[in-house]
Amino acid sequence: MSRAAQLALPLLLGAAILLWTYHGFDFGHVWSVLGGGIDGRWMALSLLFGVLAHLLRGWRWVLALRPLGECPRRANSVYAIFVSYAANLVLPRVGEVSRCGILAKYDGVSFARSLGTVVTERLIDSLCVALITLATLLLQTSAFADFFRLTGTDGAFFLRLFASTNFYITLACLLAVLVLLCWLVANLTVFARLRGLLGKIWQGCLSLRQLDSPVLYLFYTAGIWMCYFLHFYLTFYCFGFTAGLGWMAGLVLFVVGSIAVIVPTPNGAGPWHFAVITMMMMYGVSKDDAGIFALLVHGIQTFLLILLGIYGLVALPLTNKTINSKKTVL
Questions:
Q1: What is the dihedral of CA 209, 215, 216, 218, to 10 degrees?
Q2: Triad 79, 264, 141: Cα angle to 5°
Q3: Whole-model pTM?
Q4: pLDDT tens, 45-98?
Q5: Which residues, 6+ apart, have CB-to-CB distance to 139 below 8 Å?
Q6: How many Å separate Cα 228 from the centre of its chain?
C-alpha cells in the first residue's frame, strides 16, 4: 500500500462516516452552544485528566523498559507519548512507531525492544477494554433488554438489518480494522526479517515478567483508565442536556467510544461520533444535542492532543540539549 493511500484511506473513511452522521445537521446551533451553553470549568477539569492519563502512560512505559536494561528519562517517555498521540492524528497507529524512535534518538533505547513493550501495552489496553465492557454489560443488562423490547427488536430484526445504513457503516469499520491489522502484521514481519529484530521485539513483549514493581505497574494501568473515563465523563457536566445522565450512562458511552476508536481513522473521528450519538439517543438525548456533544467534545479533546504533540516536539530537543550541556560542563 502506497504512503498516499495510507494517509488518504483513514481520512476518507472518517470523513464519509462524519458526513453521513451529520447529514442535515444545523451547525449554527454548535456556535450558539460555544457562545454560552458550555461550562468551561468542567471542560478544563476533563482536559486535566486527559493530560494525567498521558503522564501515567509515560511513567508506566519506563517501568516496562527497565527489565530490559533500558533506562530512558521519564520526561522523554512522557514527551514521546505526547508526540505519538498527535502523530496518530495524521496516520493511525504510526504513533506507536514514532514514540520508540524518539527514545532511541534521545536515550539510546533499543528500538526493537521498546516496540515489543508497546505491543504488550496494546494487548493490556485491549484486555482492559474487554474487562470494562464485560462489567458494563453485566451492570446494564436490564437497560439493554428494555432497549431491545421498546424498539421492537424481534426475529425480523436480522432481515431488516441488511437494509439498514448503520449495518454497512459498522461493516465498513470492521473491514478497515481488518485491513489495518493485515498491514501492520505484514510490515512488522518484513521489517523484522530485514533487520533481524524479531528476537529483540519478543524480549520487549516479555518484559512484564521481570518487572521491578508489578503493583506499581497495575496502579498506573488502573490510573490510566480511570483518567480516560473521567476525561470523557466529566464533559457531561459541560452541557445542560447531558448533566443528568449519571455515571452509568457515562460508562456505557465510554465503552462504545473506546471500541469505536479502534477503527483506523484520526482519533476515531466518524466511528466515535456515530457510536456516541447512537447510544446517547438511547438515554433520551435528542439527536441534535447528541450531535453537538460529540462534535464539541471530540473536537476539543483532539485539539488537546495537537497541543500536547507540539509541546512534546518543542520540549524534547530543548530539554535534552540542556541536560547534555550540563553533562559537558561537569
A1: 80
A2: 100
A3: 0.80
A4: 999 999 999 999 999 999 989 888 888 999 999 999 999 999 888 877 788 889
A5: 248, 251
A6: 9
Answer whether 276's CB lies under 8 Å from 256's CB. yes
C-alpha cell at 141: 443488562
d(CA 312, CA 299): 20
Alpha-carbon gap, residue 219 to 122, rounded angstroms: 17
Helix, strand, coil % in the chain, rounded to nearest 5: 80, 0, 20
Contacts 24+ apart (CB under 8 A), 222-229: 223/52, 223/53, 223/56, 224/53, 224/56, 224/57, 224/60, 225/128, 225/132, 227/49, 227/50, 227/52, 227/53, 227/56, 228/49, 228/50, 228/53, 228/254, 228/258, 229/254
Burial of 90 from C-beta contacts in 10 A (0-12 / 13-18 / 19+): middle
Straight-line distance from the first to the last Cα atom of the chain, in angstroms, rounded to the nearest whole number = 50
User: What does the alpha-carbon distance between residue 224 and residue 57 come to, in Å, rounded to a whole number?
Assistant: 7
- Residues in the chain, pLDDT under 70: 1-8, 10, 35-36, 142-207, 322-330
CA R_g for the chain: 21
Cα gap 17→13, rounded to integer Å: 6
Q: Residue 224 and residue 102: Cα distance in Å, rounded?
A: 22
